[in-house]
Amino acid sequence: MVSGLQYPNNIQKNYSKNVSYSNRGMDLEKIIEEANIYYRENDIAYIFKKPTPIGIVKVVYNNKERRIKDAFYKTPSTLDFNGLYKGKYIEFDAKETTNKTSFPLSNIHEHQIKHIININNHGGIVFLIISINSEYYLLPGQILIDFLNRETRKSIPYLFIKENGYILKYNYLKGLDYINVVDKLIGGSYEKNAN
Questions:
Q1: d(C-alpha 191, C-alpha 99), whole Å
Q2: Residue 119: inside a domain, yes or no?
Q3: Can you give the CATH number for the domain in which 33 is found?
Q4: Which of 1, 20, 135, 137 gets the highest tally of CB atoms within 10 A of its CB?
Q5: pLDDT tens-place string over residues 83-98
Q6: CA gap 26, 24 in Å, rounded
Q7: What does the pLDDT average to over 144-162?
Q8: Of the candidate ranges 18-22, 45-49, 75-79, 83-87, the one whose mean pLDDT is the lowest
Q9: What is the pTM assigned to this prediction?
Q10: Across residues 35-44, what is the average pLDDT?
């Protein structure tokens, strides 16, 4: 609650403000999509959330409304987002964990890892955006692949993500602004948190 602000000419106004913490755990995909919309509207990049391919089995019609009651996934989904930036193909996935010390590799499906390897091998820009400890990191695909090739762990330590990923900041105008890090990836610079 805020009250008693002093204005010029010794005018004092009292007001109260209810503080809401409802958006503290903002959905990661939502704030990434805010950035994607900003990038598209400002002709910066064309990146979209990919729809999950589903087959519809049963639809219920009532009061001019259609509702899917039964459906199945046609194929396993690959990564959440893809598009173009400066003539480069971009593809990435959004991952969240409540674990404070590590990111469980069980959050990345085997077919997604194969997809990351394939995109990387074909010269695309591929990465994960990971939400951990109320922070957001962009972890390049090559760093993830290198980690998987040399480690037998079932998780990526938080410290590894912090040292090898790029920290991302939320911006009220742009959402989760990640494109400046993509610039570094295109240029081949993997400097730690140089954004």
A1: 26
A2: yes
A3: 3.40.1350.10
A4: 137
A5: 999 999 999 999 999 9
A6: 6
A7: 94
A8: 18-22
A9: 0.74
A10: 95
